[in-house]
């Protein structure tokens, strides 16, 4: 995924993102991978579309995670792991549409050996405890911010100067948690030891970022009493009624922390490999899965920012109040909604929907340049995520609406009647 450039080139970046997303927007899955329609039909034939999954059906979620990983430029084996990622069930959900004792050969025939190995590992490791207890909960927000800063310097020193310092705080801590040779965990069903390389662990962290972003919304906050916005799964309100009010969920702080840790692992891997290269060493015999490319998702400014939990909550609540108080379209309500949305994007600048709604307010006011700026930012964020933050509407719906607003802002026109609003739809 290309790095988001300065604002003067944002329009060009938006076009690049749209080009990547267009096959998914048009349902032309064969343009993404000629075998993808067949793989989706396989999942459909074993009942994935009949299984409930958080925000919809399991089939929808599987295809959505594939889409997210593809838009993030993940390797094919990782994208295919996303497409079949819980097919044997895992530590989070009971969705064994393929029996792991008899179905591995069947899955391998469809996706290949490399992808099936990832799928199987993903389904047997204790992902909740690995990612949360063993990674996320070992770091404070302050540590992650400091270690991201320090690690950037370390990578530059390694590559430009050949300087390698294992004694740096960020490296010592990361190596203590995730050493170069990887980790050993217990199989969630048999209790046997399972070896997981550091790179595969990193892949599973990145996949969990996409996985959570696609499925989490306000319902899980009620279910786990996530009042502090840190998604620690500490509550037990099992009587929460699905789907709740549809409010955006408080999952982004947790995902930003995953992104930071993922980035730290990627940087440590870069230093590790650079050190070996300079020493003239070949692969050291350990199964480190170095053939798997580690890509950086574009979210949270390429996984370099950690979102404060309190600011996440304030931003979400401001957005919710704005879309509710602005629903009537009255002038005074829109003034209040504009004020709230401006503050919202200051608190949480990493989601697109507040920019889109703010763009509509500016169109209503005839502030076309401001509307163009906001809708462009909103579209970029939504396309980068590959999933909606406000899940009352689909990802495709938010993009279509945002593109209509963006087009009208560039035309410097906006309907002044209700029928005019209903008549919108065509995107040039």
UniProtKB/TrEMBL annotation:
One of its GO terms (molecular function) is ligase activity. SUPFAM superfamilies: TPR-like (SSF48452). InterPro entries: DUF6817, TPR-like_helical_dom_sf. Residues 42-127 form the DUF6817 domain. This is Ubiquitin-protein ligase. The keyword Transcription regulation does not apply. Coiled coil: none annotated. The keyword Ligase applies. Keywords: Ligase. It comes from Lithospermum erythrorhizon.
């Amino acid at each position: 995924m290309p790095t988001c450039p300065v604002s003067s080139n944002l329009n060009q970046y938006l076009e690049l993102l749209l080009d990547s997303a267009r096959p998914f927007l048009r349902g032309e899955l064969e343009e993404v991978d000629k075998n993808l329609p067949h793989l989706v039909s396989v999942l459909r034939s074993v009942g994935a579309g009949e299984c409930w999954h958080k925000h919809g059906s399991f089939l929808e979620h599987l295809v959505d995670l594939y889409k997210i990983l593809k838009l993030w430029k993940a390797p094919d084996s990782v994208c295919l792991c996303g497409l079949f990622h819980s097919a044997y069930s895992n530590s989070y959900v009971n969705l064994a549409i393929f029996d792991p004792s008899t179905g591995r050969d069947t899955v391998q025939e469809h996706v290949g050996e490399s992808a099936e190995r990832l799928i199987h590992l993903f389904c047997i490791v204790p992902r909740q405890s690995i990612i949360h207890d063993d990674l996320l909960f070992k770091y404070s927000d302050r540590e992650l911010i400091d270690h991201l800063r320090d690690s950037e310097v370390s990578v530059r020193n390694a590559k430009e100067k050949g300087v390698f310092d294992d004694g740096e705080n960020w490296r010592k801590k990361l190596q203590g948690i995730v050493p170069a040779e990887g980790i050993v965990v217990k199989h969630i069903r048999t209790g046997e030891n399972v070896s997981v390389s550091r790179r595969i662990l990193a892949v599973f962290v990145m996949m969990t970022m996409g996985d959570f972003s696609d499925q989490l919304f306000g319902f899980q906050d009620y279910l786990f009493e996530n009042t502090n916005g840190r998604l620690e799964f500490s509550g037990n309100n099992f009587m929460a009624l699905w789907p709740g009010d549809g409010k955006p969920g408080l999952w982004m702080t947790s995902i930003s922390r995953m992104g930071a840790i993922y980035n730290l692992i990627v940087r440590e891997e870069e230093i590790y490999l650079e050190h070996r290269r300079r020493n003239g060493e070949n692969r050291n015999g350990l199964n480190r899965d170095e053939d798997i490319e580690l890509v950086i998702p574009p979210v949270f400014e390429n996984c370099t920012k950690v979102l404060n939990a309190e600011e996440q909550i304030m931003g979400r609540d401001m957005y919710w109040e704005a879309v509710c108080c602005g629903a009537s379209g009255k002038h005074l309500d829109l003034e209040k909604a504009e004020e709230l949305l401006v503050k919202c994007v200051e608190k949480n600048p990493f989601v697109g929907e507040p920019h889109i709604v703010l763009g509509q307010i500016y169109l209503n006011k005839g502030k076309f340049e401001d509307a163009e700026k906001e809708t462009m930012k909103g579209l970029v964020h939504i396309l980068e995520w590959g999933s909606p933050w406000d899940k009352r509407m689909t990802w495709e719906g938010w993009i279509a609406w945002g593109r209509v607003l963006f087009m009208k802002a560039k035309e410097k026109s906006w309907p002044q009647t209700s029928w005019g609003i209903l008549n919108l739809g065509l995107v040039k």
